[in-house]
Amino acid sequence: MQIPKQSVLLRIFVGEEDRDDGRPLYEAIVLKAREMHLAGATVLRGGLGYGQSSRLHTTKILRLSEDLPLVVEIVDSEEKINAFLPYLETVMTSGLVTLEKVQVLHYGSPRA
């Protein structure tokens, strides 16, 4: 699979406890991205963060949180990312979604 040098980075900020039909939302997003043949998706877990509610979510022992911040990152062509956005509208009830243009320098394994 090739992705254009000029691509788009889709960043989706959700909470670990966010759900879609009983399944973790971040997992549903990654599986849908795979189903739609997007180039790849990565889920990053934050150790500390807050969102619209200003409620602090942390991994600190004395303040155990069951809703740590997560970021799902997906890079692909603008067309494929734009085709994915309507799906997000159906599953996102809170969180943040951002887009930015990126230049892809390398994707995949080196040639033999």
If you had to describe this structure to a student in words, what would you say it looks like?
With 112 residues, the protein is of the alpha+beta class. It has a single domain, classed as Alpha-Beta Plaits (2-Layer Sandwich), CATH 3.30.70.120. The chain has two helices and eight strands. It has helices at 25-35, 78-91, and strands spanning 6-15, 19-20, 23-24, 41-45, 48-49, 57-58, 69-76, 96-103. The strands form three sheets. The chain has a four-stranded antiparallel beta sheet. Strands 2-3 form a two-stranded antiparallel ribbon. A hairpin with a 2-residue loop joins strand 2 (19-20) and strand 3. It is globular and about 45 Å long. The model has no long low-confidence stretch (mean pLDDT 90).
Question: Which features would summarize this protein structure in a list?
Answer:
two-stranded antiparallel sheet, 22% helix, four-stranded antiparallel β-sheet, alpha+beta, 112 residues, UPF0166, 2 helices, N-reg_PII-like_a/b, 8 strands, globular, Alpha-Beta Plaits
What is shown here, in short?
Belongs to the UPF0166 family. The strands form three sheets. The protein has a four-stranded antiparallel sheet. Strands 2-3 form a two-stranded antiparallel ribbon.
